[in-house]
Amino acid sequence: MVRVDHAVTSGTFSLDGQTFDVDNNVWVVGDDRECVVIDAPHSVPGILQVVGDRTVTAIVLTHAHDDHVRVAPELARRTGAPMFLHPLEEPLWRLTHPDVPMPRALSDGEQIGALRVIHTPGHSPGAVCLYAAELGAVFTGDTLFQGGPGATGRSYSDRDTIEASIRDRLLTLPPETVVHTGHGDDTTIGAENGVARS
Question: Which range of residues forms the domain containing residue 41?
Answer without folding.
Answer: 3-197
